[in-house]
């Protein structure tokens, strides 16, 4: 059974479990929370979900999967000052397997001022923009072309892993902490901590960091983890705690990358 909604402003919106909710082109605006307990399908076009609620009153929660109607077509934006929780996979289609019946979104945007929690495992979006703090609720794999942790967006791992498999450019604008492992298995990674008070930008993992493509530093950066490897310029460091500069790994002249290996 599918439920469709369109037009108007209501206080709180909730859908049940076990069905499918089709979101209307244009979107939904509420004064309070939005909770989608069943699978969500986007209508063809642009969908914007907005809550004007403050704090928890603005929470928007997806308890299951999110898919487009057609692969690489839909634009989806979530605008709230509360917490946006993605509890299921995004863009994997009806079989839930990457490379199968994929229904990846063309664009997914979260707006500034809130928090985004990723708990669904895999996110498959062609162009993905996070403009608020991102918290990993589970091990997360992000696939697509371009990913932007925009502006001051911090990534808080909560002890979970993060694999960035976007084939184009991934921009990390804030500090990274609490991630069990950070794997960048393809494409260029730009560390862009441009805002006041950051430099040096810090990327801290409990375990390993692996970078398979080029690394670009906009400002100085400090990488800390149990093992840090660039597959284009080896930077494995022996010993317990070592700090050094690797000129060959930067593509921005004069920036310094410090690597700390912590057992």
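^ Assign residues to that structure.
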């Amino acid at each position: 059974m599918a439920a469709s909604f369109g037009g108007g402003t209501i206080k709180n919106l909730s859908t049940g479990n076990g069905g499918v909710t089709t979101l209307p082109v244009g979107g939904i605006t509420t004064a309070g929370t939005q909770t989608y307990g069943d699978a969500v399908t986007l209508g063809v076009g642009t969908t914007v979900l907005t809550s004007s609620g403050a704090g928890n009153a603005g929470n928007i929660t997806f308890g299951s999967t999110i898919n487009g109607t057609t692969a690489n077509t839909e634009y989806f934006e979530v605008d709230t000052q509360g917490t946006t929780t993605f509890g299921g996979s995004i863009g994997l289609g009806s079989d839930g397997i990457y490379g199968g019946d994929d229904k990846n979104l063309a664009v997914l945007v979260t707006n500034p001022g809130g928090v985004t929690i990723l708990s669904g495992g895999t996110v498959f979006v062609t162009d993905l923009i996070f403009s608020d703090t991102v918290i990993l609720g589970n091990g997360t794999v992000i696939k697509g072309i371009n990913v932007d942790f925009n502006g001051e967006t911090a990534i808080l791992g909560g002890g979970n892993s993060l694999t960035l498999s976007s084939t184009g450019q991934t921009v990390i604008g804030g500090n990274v902490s609490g991630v069990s492992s950070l794997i960048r298995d393809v494409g260029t990674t730009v560390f862009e901590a441009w805002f006041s008070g950051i430099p040096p930008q810090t990327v801290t993992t409990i375990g390993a960091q692996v970078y398979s493509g080029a690394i670009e530093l906009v400002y100085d950066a400090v990488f800390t983890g149990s093992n840090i490897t660039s597959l284009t310029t080896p930077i494995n460091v022996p010993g317990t705690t070592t700090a050094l500069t690797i000129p060959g790994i930067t593509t921005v002249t004069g920036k310094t990358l410090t690597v700390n290996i912590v057992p």
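The mean pLDDT is 86.
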